[in-house]
Amino acid sequence: METYSVSQITKKISGLISADATLSGVAIEGEVSNCTLHSSGHLYFSLKDENAKINCIMFARDVRNIDFLPEAGMHIIAYGRVMLYEKTSTCQLQATVLIHSGMGVLHEKYSRLLKELESQGYFDKENKKPLPTFIKKAAVITSPTGAVIHDIINTVRRRNPTVQIILCPAPVQGSGAAKELAERMGRINRLNLADVIIVARGGGSLEELWAFNEQELALAIYASKIPVISAVGHETDFTISDFVADVRAATPTAAAEMVSFPRENYLAHLSAQRLRMVQVISVRLEDYRQRLKALSRPAALTQMLQNNITGHRNAVKTLRKTLAKTAETMLVMQRMQLANLQIRLEANDVAATLAKGYALVKIQDKLLTSKEQARLHESIDVIFDNFRLKAEIVEIKGETYGAKENI
Predict the structure, then answer these.
(1) What's the pLDDT tens digit per position in 88-131?
(2) At the topology level of CATH, where does 6-103 sit?
């Protein structure tokens, strides 16, 4: 097996790429990211799709021939040759021609989701929750290894060390990051861990910040019962999370300042409250002192007792009138009820009913009320108003025990 030095192997790889005629003139289509125009006039950028990325360089002589400068998110076609930059062993495209083919896929997704959520009211001001005036606990969802968490902790400790920072570590870029960020948001709410939530990360390109443009995270922020501060990227970066959150902070440090009300301000507030309390108590004590002094005078005491007696006497008079009126009303109602009962009793009087020509039928001294009591050839008494008859049942008509019987 032959052993190569680093320079030898990179030259060999470079030679293999240069020898491939198909790589000496290619057209690559993709989305622009990390675009920089150097002071030398050279243009550095990357082209990417959903699965890969390639670095590109365009020398100043070729840059002068293009009619636009690519920007992050643009969808372009770059013509040139593939080469190996031996100093870093980086495969790159040396572009000579650029064709602008429209906005990139990520920008299209961003714009589409932004319009959709806006139309559904996710950005409305009336849905924004205010931050608590005094915050004791702040949960921070961010990478545990980045500079962001250190900046937040240092800022809070400097301004108000009594505020407790709860780190909820989560990936802030890459596949699945949005899902994990949303999961942390839901867990903090379920356990009610903090007074406010900060979701944060440092600056980056559009694709690096993409997790904060995903619908899954936007829905979790909107559903949060705890106020959410979005502190993503630099001041010029705007993500979907910024629009959905209750408050947007230009930077993670600014978010830390929002949750750390300065300790000096706390002390000043407490001092002002203490002074106000002393003033209120002093005013009340003086008022009670004056009342007590007034009551200590015999004339004032007599007048107070007289006022109390008069007040109670008037109350008794009022209650007496009310009682009399209530009793009178109840008596009238009872009389009306009694009259109604008398009318009903008279309507159901047996003697009055018989006087109208009706009769009672008894069998064996029991009132006959149904045909099931009747038996053929049995003796019955028919009682009228002023006389009675003795009779015998000779015929029963109608249904008897489910069957018709005529005798």
Answers:
(1) 888 999 999 998 765 566 777 888 899 999 999 999 999 999 99
(2) OB fold (Dihydrolipoamide Acetyltransferase, E2P) (2.40.50)
Distance of alpha carbon 245 from alpha carbon 228, whole angstroms = 5
Which CATH superfamily, name and number, covers 109-124+134-261? Hypothetical protein af1403; domain 2 (3.40.50.10550)
The residue to which tokens 């849905």 are assigned: 127
- Taking only the tens place, the pLDDT of each residue in 145-175 is 889 999 999 999 998 888 999 999 999 988 8
Beta strands of 67-184 (E only): which ranges? 74-85, 90-103, 137-142, 164-169
**Is the per-residue pLDDT at 13 higher than 50?**
yes
List beta partners, residue 137: 164
Q: Please report, in angstroms and rounded to a whole number, the separation of the first and last CA atoms in the chain.
A: 129
Q: In whole angstroms, what is the distance from residue 138 CA to residue 162 CA?
A: 11
pLDDT per residue as tens digits for the range 348-379? 777 777 777 788 888 888 888 887 888 888 88
Rounded Cα distance between 230 and 393, Å, is 100
73: helix, strand or coil: coil
**Residues 148, 204: contact at Cβ < 8 Å?**
no
Residues of the chain with CATH 2.40.50.140: 6-103
Integer Cα distance of 217 and 86 in angstroms = 41
pTM of the predicted model as reported, rounded to 2 decimal places:
0.49
Is-contact 63 43, C-beta < 8 A? Answer: yes
